Amino acid sequence: MDKLLALKMFLATVEAGGFSAAARRLDLATSSVTRMVSALEQDLGTVLLNRSTRQVTVTEAGEVYYQQARRILDELADADEQVRDSGSEPSGPLRVSLPTTLGRDVIAPHLGEFIRRYPRLELDITVSDSISDLLGDSIDLAIRLGAPAPMDGVVSRTISGYQRWVVASPAYLAAHGEPRQPTDLLDHRCLRFNYVNANSRDLRQVWTFRRQQEEQRIAVNGSYRSNNAEILRAAVLADAGIVLISDWLVSADVAAGRLQRLFADYEVNPNNARSQVSALYLPNQRGSLRINAFIDFFITALQRLRQQVEPYQTAELYQSADPYQTAEK
């Protein structure tokens, strides 16, 4: 009996909830999976799975065995990936989680180039605006905007900076006047990103304006908010108000005159948020060629986007961190 193959079939049966589903996942005949799991039980001298005409359930012994087998196969997979990463070229599986809009606007246009450059990588990209469970979701690398809260057992590296801009459409400003000072925003409709509590009825949000040693905190008001930046971009383009939004999302609109940037001489952030891009991965991925290759690719893609639509911006505002020298937290 091939013990490793038997373990894989047993785990697949438990995780899929039955022999037929496991066979489909493994692209094998159901009879092959059933025979192999039965042979494993005979070898161990115990029943791992309860069978009935309707379902397959795990016995108490089977649950113990499953946990240990899962750990063994995970450690074997980690060993395989670390050996692959010890070569001169990134290779093997790379599972990446990206914020939805960032993935579409920054990564997608250049993804073909990355795939051609690293043909031995098996890239799997998931887009999500929530914080990923790296271990539970089998994610190798998560790219996130802002400074994520410290998490036990997770490395956080700052890999780039970005800006948040206050923008409005020319039509809105013509109808309602252009705010000259941050306090003028109190008389305007502000479109706000819902960062934390979706159930809160408090429509205020603090926008922090910094210039040299001066700081102003403005509790803006408005009747429109969303937890999706694309929806806010559509609303500001439809003359619905003034929005605080990531620069890379509206840079092309500003360059084309569809939107006008306000308070360009201020650094603006919601509440105490930081304008940075962070890379999250597990400690055993330190020095990974696969992860460093994707981080380098991301930084280059972000720089290209800015060069295309923001030739008037000064480079120091968007200085990218060296991916091999960034501090780890």
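The above is record 1. Record 2 follows with the same two-line structure.
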Amino acid sequence: MSTAYVIVTIAAAAAALIASGVDVFRAQWVRDNMRRYGIPDWTLYPLAVIKAAGALGLLVGLAIPPLGLAAAICLVLYFLGAIITIIRAGGYRDLGYPMPYLGLAAASLALFVAS
């Protein structure tokens, strides 16, 4: 396990936990964006749980590698889904929000595969 993998994975987990916290606290800007994308407010909590589970999976994956691999794949798919949802809704100016999270999750996955 490389140092880069550990650092990027911890950063990806922290970012996913922060994104999850934003959903839990139901920030007004997040609710406004979700409505523009056609997604109901009630989905914020389930989406927060998915992100938090992915973050915890990344961290546990440092000790149990198959779990980290699964978590990284799931977070990449989650944030790809977020990008697709934004594009379908025409919210192109909001694409910058999920991109860093996708980048960190993808980097964690790539470093796992490379190691």
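Residues 65-89 form the longest helix (25 residues).
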